[in-house]
Structures are given as C-alpha cells and as structure tokens.
Specification:
about 140 residues; alpha+beta; 5-stranded antiparallel beta sheet; 4 helices; about 40% helix
C-alpha cells in the first residue's frame, strides 16, 4: 500500500489549493470540487484508503480528503478565521471541522467531472478546473 509522508500530503494540499484559489471567486467555495477531484487523482495514482469527508463549517457544508493517516484540506484558506492553520493534519487528532459524512471517491475522470460540475457555471469551467487539477497534482 502506498502512503504519504507529511511533506507529500502538504505538497498535494498546496498544489490543490493553488488551483482552487484561482476559481473560488466564481462560486461560494470549492471544497467539494477540489476534494472530489484530489481524491480521484490520489486513488488513480494507487493510494489506498482515500475518502472524501464533509462536515459543517458553520456557513454550510465543507469537504476535505482523508487517508488512513492524514486529513488534507486544500480549501481551508477560504475561511478567514482559519488562515495560518495547516492544510494537513493527522486523522488521529481533532480537525478543524467534525466529519459527519463520508463520500465515495469518483472511480473515473467522467465520474469526477460529474461530481464537481455543480460548482461551476458551465461544462467548460468544470473541464478547465479538472484539467488544471490533473496538471497541478504531482503524485
């Protein structure tokens, strides 16, 4: 089973954050699209025990990725009160938000595109986001 070091998990979070932060002005937030796309890319690269988690941020649902070791939250910076907190932490410690639901990881690119499409105005924006994520994430 392939696992991630803290540095590798942090690099993934930063890579995903860099893409998400260029898209956030178009919607209310991109926690779900970023998390589902990142989880799909991680699973496609052979990482096991990847899942998408969600919980209440106090302003709505918030999404992040979990592995058996790490909680990876690339869109945490969209919350002003969370600036300065790490994007990655051990799953054995309490996170920024309590997980109330776990979601299936998309099995294919088509499933990933379908899962994240609601966060964008049109199919072209959705495709651009998924393409940018796939190009940015280095596994």
């Amino acid at each position: 089973m392939q696992t991630l070091s803290l540095k590798e998990a942090t690099d993934l979070a930063e890579q995903a954050a860099a893409v998400a932060e260029t898209h956030i002005p178009y919607g209310s937030g991109l926690g779900a699209p970023t998390s589902f796309t990142l989880a799909w890319l991680m699973a496609a690269a052979g990482l096991e025990d990847v899942r998408v988690a969600s919980g209440s941020s106090g302003m709505g649902d918030h999404f992040w990725v979990e592995t058996d070791q790490w909680r990876i939250d690339p869109t945490l910076r969209q919350f002003a009160r969370m600036h300065g907190r790490p994007l990655v932490g051990p799953v054995t410690e309490p996170g920024n938000f309590a997980a109330v639901k776990y979601h299936a990881v998309p099995r294919s690119r088509q499933d990933a595109v379908r899962e994240v499409s609601y966060g964008f105005r049109n199919a072209a924006e959705t495709e651009d986001f998924v393409n940018e994520m796939a190009a940015a994430i280095q596994l």
